[in-house]
C-alpha cells in the first residue's frame, strides 16, 4: 500500500460522508518537478472539512511528498475548461481509490486544450527568462531550473502531438520521433535528465543547455500558437 492509499483510508475515516471521491494521479514516486498526488472531492470544501484533513495530510507529507487538490463535485465538473491539460492527464492515468468515479466522463474540449497548452508554454518561457536574469548564477542553480521545467515541457509536447498529429498516449520514443519532425531535438530533454547525476556540472555546457532548452520552449509555443 503506497502513501496515497494509506492517506485515502485515513481521509475516509476522518471525513465520513463528507468525502465524495479520491483519485490518485501522477507518478508512484516523486520525480524532479512532479510528485504523487491526490484529487480529493468533497461535498463541501468547508472550514470544518479542511480542518479534519489537516492532520492526516501533514502526517503523510512528513513521510513522503504528496500533492493534494481539493474540489467539490460541482467545481470538478466546471474545471475541465480551466485546467484541461491537468484533467486530461488525470482522466487518462488517474485511479479512483475511493467513492465515485468522476473523471472518466469529463469532456475535454480541444480548443481549451490548445489554448491552455500555448499558455503553459509561454508562461514557462517567461519564467525561464526571468529566472535567468534575476537569480540563476551558478551551474547547479541553472540545472535545478532546467530539471524542474523539463517535465512540464514533456507534457505539453505530448498535448501538441495529439492536437497537431492526432497521436494520443504516445511513448517517449514515439514523442521523440514526432517532435524531431517539427525541428525540435528531443534528446536535449534526456541530456537535462542526465545533468542531475553530475556532482560538478560544467558551467559553459549548462549555460548552453539552458538557452537551447529555452529556445525549444519558444519553438513549441510558436507551434501551439499556429494550430
Count of individual helical segments: 9
Task: Detail the poorly predicted runs.
Answer: none
Sheet with the most strands: spatial strand order? 3-2-1-4
CATH architecture of the largest domain: Up-down Bundle
* H-E order: HEEHEHHEHHHHH
- What is the CATH topology assignment of the largest domain? Four Helix Bundle (Hemerythrin (Met), subunit A)
Pairing-aware structural class of the strands and helices? alpha+beta
Please count the beta strands (DSSP E, at least 2 residues each).
4
Number of domains: 2
For the sheet with most strands, the description reads: 4 strands, mixed
Residue share in β-strands: 5-15%
Q: Please identify the top-level CATH class of the largest domain.
A: Mainly Alpha
> How far apart, in Å, are the first and last alpha carbons?
43 Å
Helical residue percent band: 55-70%
Q: What is the radius of gyration?
A: 19 Å
Mean pLDDT: 93
What general form does the structure show? globular
